[in-house]
Amino acid sequence: MAENTSPVIRLPRYTKTEQEEILGEGDDPFGVAGTGLTFLPKEEHFGIESGGRLVAHAGLLRLSVLIGDMATEVVGVGGVAVAPGMQGRGLARRVVAAALEHARTMGPQHALLFCRPPLVPLYQRLGWHLLETDVLVEQPEACLVTMPLRTMVTPLREEARWPTGVVRLFSLPM
Question: Is 44 helix (H, G, I), strand (E, B) or coil?
Fold first, then answer.
């Protein structure tokens, strides 16, 4: 299909307008409003266009974390979206793979994402691993909360091993 041959491109920006181009208008396009969390915007954006419109996106953001007693950085992956009529065609795999290829140039050893439980099998097929430990994230008003979404990680280097211990993000989640 033509949409599967469209190249993944680096986007100069990703605004609410571009998000609505993919997911349509709505108050909760990612199904996470019920968590009450505030999320950070991503800084690097990758997308796929088809038929003159954006149909897939993945964003990246470099973040400081504490894993057990080890301070390090991760590349946060977020804002992964595929237009409803385009799902099941490998676009999420392609846009996330392109984002991770760029993430490998950013320095950190691992990428991290948060997702709703129904999406865990998709990310596992893409090589991500579920973390079974608590992840603490900052929220406005200097509040620290346990992430209610599932946390997944993937190595960005062949030799990278995820340390053990509770994870604390020194920022809002991505």
Answer: strand
